[in-house]
Amino acid sequence: MSTDQWVGNDVSQGHARLEGILRFERLSHGFALCETLAVSLVAVATADLYWSYALEWHPDRSVTMAVGAALGLGVAGLSLLRGSYERAIEPGPGFLWSGLVTTLRIFTALLAVLFVTRFDEGYSRGTFFSQFVTSGLVVLTLRSVFQRLLRERLAKGRVERQRLMIVGDAQLDPQLQARLSARGCHVVARLSLADTARADEAETLRAIVNTCRESGVERVLVHTSAELGDLVDRLLHDLSETPVTVEVLPHRNSPLWRAKGDGLAGLPAAVVRNRPLSRLQLLLKRVFDFAVALGALIFLAPLLLAIAAAIRLDSKGPIFFRQTRHGYGNQPIRVFKFRSMRVMEDGAAFRQATRNDPRITRVGAVLRRTNLDELPQILNVLFGEMSIVGPRPHPIALNETFAKEIKLFHRRHNIRPGITGWAQINGHRGETDTLKKMADRIEHDLWYVDHWSFLLDLKIILMTAFSRAAYRNAG
Fold first, then answer.
1. pTM for this structure?
2. What are the C-alpha distances in Å from 204 to residues 186, 229, 234?
3. Number of H helices, E strands in the chain
4. What is the distance between the alpha carbons of residues 369 and 383, in angstroms, rounded to a whole number?
5. For position 16, what pLDDT does the model report?
């Protein structure tokens, strides 16, 4: 059986097994919403009952509602930030204890706020402690029920936490399979490297990378051995162009195989490559992107309408131009732009714009020089296909031209593409008619991928608006 057949058949079987399966992220986010509402309602109800029956008076109801909402949002928000909901998958009481500790931290913060604002004089100690007790009981009850239902679905293979690919050892140990399934890890592809002929190695590595991209693989487990050392090194190099976490396992005949480890499912694995952004960082970046894009769409609506009218009056053709480009994980996305040219080239027919290009319209020249032609990509950000800041998405034909010449070219796609980016504010935008121009742009894109931070995104946004370098080579 050829490499492509082996991978393809296993992947198709993996997809069949994934039908009707719920993603753990959706379950945990849904539970976080339920926990928020439950804690908020119980805190408000407890305060009402205590004040009505114990004190026989009631302060402003808006105060109890505000405190209740703050408590509910605090417990769920802190749990999300600390990854506490992930512990629901693990056996033992860790998930329940984390709920109690989180509740204690939130109430401690509330106590500090009440003391600093001197509002504690109107907020009785009895109310505070009764709210803490009832909120803690609600958190314990909800988490106990959620964990029990979750583990039942995990045992039936109905919850997916991660999509996994195993490379190097096609024989999946039944005990290992059970450990992975119990933690929501679904093996969507397996491939043995032991029988790979020297002449087929490049094809094998390409098939593995393509499978990661096409099947949404999130983690790759690589079994190593002395005989496969060179091939594994090349595999790790190629996998760096995909947004996956890579763990290396010792060979099953190694004494290390029986050791207890901190890797996936308690395996003695070493993480040799992580995804560029953690789940928390991805969440923060996505929330920031959505908020900024929605605000920009509302604030810039008059400007967008004025540009649309100018395009319509200037030349024949549609207002918007949609072009297929590479997005996150090398997947194709359709990018919105204001039409700035008289042609609508896409795919293989694409030809990059040059300075003083006769295809550019009069209005289009102004839009390209001021970056305003990119504004409709706010819609791509709202749809989750792009980010405010990230490597600029290139037309697929342009990527295919340079990917063969520049090492790790596609690693820039390990993060969502952006409307603006580190390369653009450093003057690396516009026409890339030489290999050096594109190589300089890719160098800046990869630096951004490796050094991402929230503050760096803010810096890039400000420099896009106020730095002259961001407009260099425009047109």
1. 0.69
2. 22, 15, 11
3. 16, 11
4. 26
5. 44
pLDDT score for 418:
92
DSSP for 397-422 reads HHHHHHHTTSTTGGGGGGS--EEE-H
**Which is it for strands 418-420 and 387-389: parallel, antiparallel or unpaired?**
parallel
Residue pair 163/217 in contact (Cβ under 8 Å)? The answer is yes
| The two structure tokens encoding residue 416 | 């969502």
Segments of the chain with pLDDT less than 70: 1-20, 54-60, 118-123, 169-173, 194-199, 225-229, 250-270, 344-356, 469-475
d(CA 257, CA 245): 20
Average pLDDT, the chain: 81
pLDDT in tens, 415-428: 999 998 998 888 88
d(CA 72, CA 35): 7
pLDDT on residue 342: 77
Q: What is the pLDDT of residue 363?
A: 86
pLDDT at site 212: 85
Beta strands in 320-465 (DSSP E): 320-326, 332-338, 387-389, 418-420
Question: Which string of b and e fits 48-73 if b means at least 16 CB within 10 Å?
Answer: bebbeeeeeeeeeeeebeebbbbbbb
Q: Which amino acid is at 271?
A: V
Distance CA 206, CA 4 (A): 10
Q: What are phi and psi of 338, to 5 degrees?
A: -70, 135
**The token pair that represents 29 in the structure block:** 């986010």
Q: To which H or E segment does residue 162 belong?
A: strand 162-167
Measured over the CA atoms of residue 49, residue 54, residue 57 and residue 59, the dihedral's sign is: negative
